[in-house]
Task: structure prediction
Amino acid sequence: MSDAKLIATLPGDGIGPEITEVTKTVLNTVVGEGRLRFEDHLFGGASIDAHGIALTDETLAACKAADAVLLAAVGGPKWDTTNPDDPRPEQGLLGIRKELGLFANLRPVRAIDALIEASPLRPERIKGTDLLVVRELTGGIYFGEKTRTETTASDVCAYSTEEVERIARTAFRAATRKVTSVDKANVLETSRLWRETVVRVQATEFPDVVLEHLLVDNAAMQLVSNPSDFDVIVTENMFGDILSDEAAMITGSIGMLPSASLGNPDGPGLFEPVHGSAPDIAGQGIANPLAMFLSAALMLRHGLGWESEAVALESAVDRALAGGLRTPDLGGSANTAEATEAVLSNL
Result:
């Protein structure tokens, strides 16, 4: 079909190719054959092996030309290095976020009733949790100037008011109850600018949304002691990276957490599970594909505007879990194919 939506798929490394293939099957089932067209491209470690860099100009151009980008996972011990001159798979992630203008990373965290017992937290603590981490994705320490000598190293953390304003607006628009802005304003100048800017955006543009502030160390404690109190958490790049991985354990496994990276309204969004490439289980057919499925649902919703299809996929995952589906990371024995079939049978 000429009007099929073009999805640039980046299988990446480790378990990435395995969960990408089954996700294509699930997507074609939920939206109907012919409505999506997939194009695979090398990315991350796989691209380093083939081309010497994690993100080639060709792959970047293909992503820019697509309606959405679906990424599985990158990285692994094979490419780990402390030499700043050696290519790393993560450079591809930073590069594609910057080049596509993806400044807002959305990570929904929901306590699924069927998995309450799988969480290391007590059920009464996590029941009812339904929060969204809004992470600034293209600024801060990850993108600041870096220096390295034999005995010293530095990474500059820098933010502009414009960068803080746009991520704050994203958070306020997503909120249903309140926005919790997380910073380290008692120590860092960037956090003081962050807090002042978020306060101004709330006062001038979103006065009806409740705003509270937490220092990042306190926020880390509150996430495990009272996660259901949160609605939307907005924070800078590194804090968001850490806190969203911590919040993932509310669901019972980081293998359950999806994400959406959005920004330029005229360009594609990027959708990926939060988990890594799990090279220790790659090729064994036992990877949990559910976070990839849920990332695909976010793609349907935020990338393509297909809300009913997104809800259908999310509901199928919920029903499969309610029916007893458990992969090894959730304390069960279902392999990738069995998990896929369980979701397909509930569509």
Remarks:
- Residues 189-205 form the longest helix (17 residues).
